[in-house]
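Fig. S4 source data, part A: sequence.
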Amino acid sequence: MPVKAIKTLDQSIQKANASGGDDSLEVALYEVRKKIYPRAVSGVIARWRIALVALTQLVYYGVPWLTWNDRQAVMFDLAHRKFYLFGVVFWPQDFILLTALLVISALSLFLFTAVAGRLWCGFACPQTVYTEIFLWIEQWVEGDRMKRMKLDEAPMDLRKLRTKATKHGLWIALSLWTGITFVGYFTPIRELLGEIARLSLGPWETFWVLFYGFATYGNAGWMREQVCKYMCPYARFQSVMFDSDTLIVTYDYHRGEPRGPRARSADRKVLGLGDCVDCGICVQVCPTGIDIRNGLQYECIGCGACADGCNQVMAKMGYPRGLIRFSTENAIGGKYPDAEIVRHLFRPRVLIYSAILFAIVAATAATLYLRVPLKVNVIRDRATLVRETADGRLENVYRLQIFNTTERPRSYTVTASGIEGLELKGESQPIRVEGASSRMVSVRLLAERTAVRKGSNPVVFHVQAIDDERVRTGEKSSFIAR
């Protein structure tokens, strides 16, 4: 049970006992959420956060509008089971590459967390990014922190209704555009907007636009820090990847304590105080509402807003900056100076993560570079496994599905090997396959009865592009004899 909830429960019981109340007492075991009003802050870290918000949204909203070879540059065409990524077309057979991408993402998260804590959460996570954007809209419409608090406390009137309606209208518009952009990665976005304009949007597109838009509006506009604190599993297991040399947002308690208010001209050494003036700015700017001076907490998303806020106060007081800063537990504890933080980041855990990540990235890159833009599936005719021809030879029938993974038409020749005297018959060659498409062709293999043994005999189909000898592949199958 949270500490605050326990204190609330104890206070309620004490009040009931003191007042001689009823024998039954109804109390809440979970603290009611108190809305957080983050204060605007400026500084180096805030500028980095703004830059990353701009970058991530430029990529997210802009990429669907890029064109490549007269089509959308990035599109996941689930209906035709083709993924377009600029000049490369991926098919279901390339699922191993998706697996590699997921493994790389997971290892990167582990590596970044071991090195510098929750950088992903504080600077690039969609929940953080959209919460930040929604807060900017809220501050623009309703004003600074104090004005927002007063507005919420004020009774409903025409002005408050107009202000709230404007804010939520902008939130909803941004959320719907976010949902449209999301669906635009799966349905060409220009066609999608045309369907919306004609009110002819399909049911699945409608569902996902509304669902993704509602999720954005609810998570970034209403739930905000609750998602990070109670719904995101990363906050729960991040501590497993932390150690005393992980770079995190920390409060220098040796320098800051004992804390206390004082005049700007006062000598803190005479007063017996540390550098912390107990102004509470670090709490006011925190998007999750925690007090970093209480030590590292799982609610901390590592955004560094408290560091920027504290630096502003230190500058006004004439004290050195960095009372709250990105540092490590060992550096704050005095085990080594801040100048050696970078050296201690390269420790065995980090080196192992880096080596594994580099190996997987290198292997994936090599696979993509050496990837042959041709795939072939061989399907045996199950209706007739083997039949005897008029000239006494044995015949097997196959269907070859040829995938041209480039975006221009190509012609191919098909041959077979594995049995002496093996002959291939079927459609006239070369076989033309349009760009980014596949073609099913029927072929027959004929072999002398004396050249095969009873049962299964291995054979290989060879498919070769006419215009490029490097584009070729072989697919194994079997020839059945009786």
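Fig. S4 source data, part B ends here. The longest helix spans residues 158-183.
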